[in-house]
Structures
1.
Amino acid sequence: AVASLQGCAEAASDSKWDGAAQVEELGGCGVKAAVLFGDFFADYLECLLFAGLVAHFGADNVHHAPDKAHFLPERAKKYPEASCWVPGLPRAKRHSDILAQIDTYDLIVTGHPASVEYASLFAEIADRRPDRTVMVNGEDAVQVKVMQSIHPTGRWFVREYDPTMFSCRDGETFPLPLALNAYDVPRFDAKADRDIPILWLGAGHFGRGPYIDVLKEYAPPGSVIRTEPTPRDEYLRLLSRSKYCIVLHGAGKQTYRLFEAAAYGCSLISQWLPLMRDDAFEFAWTFRTPDELRSIIQDLPQSPIGTLYQYQQIIQRHTHVARAAQFLAKALP
């Protein structure tokens, strides 16, 4: 099973993304995996990882519980800027069914439990299969003590990684950034008519107010700066028409917009975060303060550069398939 996991990870890492057809080609590695979401709600990282595991091992070999609204198209009506829905995902199983067959799984992924009941369930699984159980927490605020109490010597994957947050030296903690749901990505169109200079769509809370004030005052004419909800179809149309897209921190520093805007051909103007060191964001503009954002807006070139390179990097190395491969390379000892 370990050899199969490593083989799948290597195959996906070396391949070039070419849409949903490649997902079918990556399946059938002979590994059986279970993904157990918590009872609060499955975060984007858990959902994208689950979809990536399905791409690697096939829908018949990846089971999950319970069912989550993240996998339904209707979710896009409430969260227009980030949908983790992927076609063809398997139906959820009952926890009791998975628990009864827990010894048959080669890989067991547990999410973030919000209740004592789920924490006890995950702890029982970790005790029974300590060498095959890993925890993934993509919440904005990582509940360190909860993760440590469930699996104190295990492997943890978190979206927001800060080694100073973890005091338990027995376990291992790895960063696992968000990724792109590659099913929704169009082909890059270098000739697209991009008539919107700067785009910002998103809520005004999470400390974003001073940055939005700068955008409203200094963004060029024709820019779209909007804080009210926008239907997903309209959001994607606006992305495809925009030269630059603003990316601000939310409740957590990483947001799905970083990957989606890049995949839709926008040049990024992003609030800085460690992930920006990745080569995919070589041509992104970054800022740490409202004054730095103002300076960037005032000096922007009329025509963005590096958008094709950025697009290629994202769809090759930052899709749910690629992120699952990165996860598999470190998931088991």
2.
Amino acid sequence: GLRWLRHHRNVALMVIAAATLLITTLTATSAISTYYASREHRALMLAESARNRGLTLAAQFAADLVSRQMVERWNVLQLVAADSTLIEQMQSNSRPSQAEMRELSNRLADITREYNELVGDPVRWFVCSATGQQIASVPVGPDTLGRWSAGEDFFHGLGSEAPEVDVDAPRHITAPHRSQPFREDEQGPLQIALTVPIWAPAGEAPDRQFLGVLGISVSFGAFHELPLHLRAGERIMVVDLGERVWEDQRHSGLLLAHPEMERGKVYPLDQSLAAELKSQTGPHWLTDFQDPVTPGGREWIAATCPVQFPTDDQFSTWVVIVSESYQDER
């Protein structure tokens, strides 16, 4: 009996030793696994943080680029609006004939030829008289010359709430303006007009006599200078968060530029997202972003940044979105 007890005690001790070794091994393995899992998690967190910072910096860079390009457009428009020969012709004849309008259009073509690339190759340049009649157009299109535009937003600058028009002295813009979206005809591309007032020289008119409006019309999507693809999988888009009336409906968050958008087509942003972005005053982070041009395809993360314009408060409604795909096509 004693020998049996001793034998089983030895077996028990061996079992205990083996169990202790197994527990120690498992503990060490678990600790090693936890260590490497922690390192992997930290590496993933650092990579995600770096990606987020990269997207945010890209959004800030793109917003600054949009701002500088638009300010350059305003500078060119104001430079052309101050051209002495253009002003002289407008002062000498406020109600030109069709032949005189074509002559003025030729002069406008000469003045603006060197600036087309700087303003993004617009659909056309145009000039309206102080009473709202289009008296010059480059190029000259069907029914452009002589068209009455005093009721258009690009002339009066009051948005969709068109004022009652005084035919002899209609209300007009007094500063650079970006218009409501419009089409010149039913099949034409969706456009916005960028306009500036034309003033008589201060020395001749202390009261700053208003002579008319100079403008360019630009198709949606025509921000050709933007690097709309930064890196593989990234996209840049520009959105106008202002309320715009289009086809009798108010839209907030109309897409202005996107690498895959069809020029002239309306792409409204999701209204809850538009409201979220309106409340932001600086860079903002989005998860599960839905691309308005290719919805339901890939999953995106995105960084946003408002576009600041030092010369025109109305452009505070513009925002840049830089998105990155984090999942292959479903």
3.
Amino acid sequence: FGFDMALIQLGEQNRNRVSDYLSSSLALRLAIGVVSVAIVTVMPLTNPDARSLLVIMTVALSLENLSTGIRASASTVDRQRGAAVVIIVQRLVTAVVSISALLLGFGVIAMGVAYLVGTAIGVVSLLFVATRIGVAPHVRNIHRDSTIALCRKAVLPGMANIMNMPTARLDIVALERRGNQDAVGYFGAAFQLVQTSLFVSDSLIRAAVPALLYAKEPTRVGEIVRAALATNSVFYFPLAVALSVRGGDILALLFGSAFAEGGKAMPPLAIGLLAWITLSLLTTTLLTRHQSKDVAWCAALALVVKLIIVWPLVNTWGIVGAGVSFAIAFTVQAA
């Protein structure tokens, strides 16, 4: 919803009020979470287990949203070590417990509960970290002016985020329209593999945020961006080559031999991955420099391009066309 970057932008201008902005951010996220849980609770689902799992996952994702807000405040005051340790431990423990529950035959609901509990523990731990670094949220820190300022700042980054979602996922919709469920599955697996690799770039960008935020000279910002791009290239260029050359084999190893067919989409998806990580870094850089309008315009342009090219490409080349439309849209946006 753009709250993270709004908090970072406002916190950079007034570090003494980071706790106020965080308190308002968490209050807004809680309200959105409550509404989301209420909606999924009353959705007309015939399978009670499906409803239970949906409610559990919605609560867990709402709590995860609180975690991202607290981490944004830690980035703003450049005290990220404690938050990073909490997230790493939380992810590892949650993964081990969730997978163990599934392998022991407890089912997906138990797996969802494990994820929910792990996420809740993570939020509590991050609140403790926020207290230690001096940005603890509190009800008394929720003020009208800080809440209004946060909402105003969040509009453009939030709009950009909303536009980026269909830009990244319209390919699946286009494939679905063709009625070929196998193609949807093959491309979905390939896309998920590409998306999973983003954790390296996301971690690097999060580490660079304080440096970008408080860099006083444009030349210093350029140095940080170039260093981040060079660091990313060490991991992502070999990965892109591997995905392009052996993508089918990797998919078969991870998801089963039937998914090797998704390797056809891997070369354009690998190019799109390079554009995606570049775009993420440039977007964060622009937002830390308070260029939210430029970010929103770029996102709108990419979405328009995607809407124009995705249907003919997918209709002509199937999953390969989906990969090509993905690569073109994000390359245009990054450029």
